[in-house]
Amino acid sequence: MDARERVLCALNREEPDRVPTFEIGITNDDISEKIMGTSLTKGTLRAAWDMRHRPFWRYLRKRRTMKYSPDLYAKSVLVMSKIGFDSCSLGVLLQFTKCKYPTWDTYIDEYGRKFQLKEYSGTEMGSYVGGGFKSPEDYYAWGSIDPYHPIRERIYKRAQEVAGDKIFIMPGIMGFFESTWEIFGFETFSKLFIQNRKFIERVFEDHKKLAIETAKYMMDLGAEALVLYDDYGHKSGPFISPKDFRKHIYPCLKEFTQTCHKRGARVLLHSDGNLNQILEDIVKADIDALHPWEPQANMDIIEGKKKYGGQICVVGNVDPMHTLSEAPPEAVREEVLKLLKNVAPGGGYILSSGHSIHPKVKYENLMEMMKTVQKYGKYPIQIPEKQI
């Protein structure tokens, strides 16, 4: 099987030739330099939005950033392809189709979320620092986002061009809940959710329509699977009550998945946090796969496979905060083997980190994860007891 066939087989809850691998993204310059001999950010991202000795706006302006975005995303996909991943997401929303620059080191993205340029373990990246809007008036003044902006097609086609058929690319689309609270910040969102519920419902609806229209655009371009980015929980539970989730978010998620299914595409939901209280509802919304079953948030992927393996494909969840970042390679191998033994049998499983390849992930640990799944992930799964 090639990468595409392997991933689609798993998304259909079947057994491919071996357990496929997926990553939502890589933001690690050290690994990029070891794999490609080049940085993810210093050659492309910096050219677009660093050069600290000059005014920030000159380099983080719309034209320059739009010019570099396709190459930056393509480079990230190429790095993941060379690492050996079978599939990855590719953010086609969250671009610079419209943006503002309040200070030299901050920007507001096309949704209205405020980011600041920061360095993490040698990698420079934009870090969310708050909402760009303080009121409904700010939201209305910002205006709508164009789901059909040509930058989205350029990013997708450029990534396909550099990666070829070595990695199965799933366009990544922002969801409805996370995008709504982040444009205001959680405190302002919470106040509006209580005091002006109809307005927040309007924003949910706007973001649902944007996600659906962008998905249609990507499917028109040939996308067979999409990743929906929408964090519903923090470390100890969902951001809103299960009752409010069912009333406001579940219908949006259900409509999104049904739209994609009508065109034959699959939906992988990426949602961090502890989702246990709303997991039943998420599965009922007809998603095809759930990622990442965050280890740090008490998400048990083994129990998840036992309970929901007949309904969804489970994707995850090697611990990126400890195992991939701090533990020795032997611990990585042990964790991967445990997942292969307990989650992979019967199919419907894709191995990945429990979030992403962030700046603190060690190169040798990532390589150990890939080596182990490629050696022991062949179906039928047969792992010698001495290896566990």
What do you see in this structure?
This protein has 14 helices and 13 strands. With 388 residues, it is α/β, with parallel strands linked by helices. The protein has one domain (3-387): Alpha-Beta Barrel (TIM Barrel), CATH 3.20.20. The longest helix has 24 residues, at 197-220. The protein starts with a helix and ends in a 12-residue tail after the last helix. The model is unreliable at 43-61 (pLDDT under 50).
State the main characteristics.
388 residues, alpha/beta, 8-stranded parallel β-sheet, 14 helices, TIM Barrel, 3-stranded antiparallel β-sheet
Decide which structural class fits the backbone: alpha/beta
Write down the CATH topology.
TIM Barrel
Low-confidence stretches: 43-61
Can you count the helices?
14
Please state roughly what percent of the residues sit in beta strands, choosing from under 5%, 5-15%, 15-25%, 25-35%, 35-45% or over 45%. Answer: 15-25%
Residue share in helix: 40-55%
Spell out the helices and strands N to C: HEHHHEEEEHHEHHHEEEHEHEHEHEH
Classified by CATH, the class is Alpha Beta
Secondary structure layout plus pairing:
Elements lengths: L2 H9 L10 E2 L5 H8 L4 H9 L12 H22 L3 E5 L14 E3 L4 E8 L2 E9 L4 H7 L7 H14 L4 E7 L3 H7 L1 H10 L1 H24 L4 E5 L3 E2 L2 E2 L3 H21 L3 E5 L8 H6 L4 E3 L9 H8 L4 E6 L10 H14 L6 E5 L9 H14 L12
Parallel strand pairs: 1-2, 2-6, 6-7, 7-10, 10-11, 11-12, 12-13
Antiparallel strand pairs: 3-4, 4-5, 8-9
Helix pairs in contact: 3-4, 4-6, 7-8, 8-9, 9-10, 13-14
Explain briefly what this protein structure is.
The protein has one domain: TIM Barrel, CATH 3.20.20.210. Helices cover 45% and strands 16% of the residues. It has 14 helices and 13 strands.
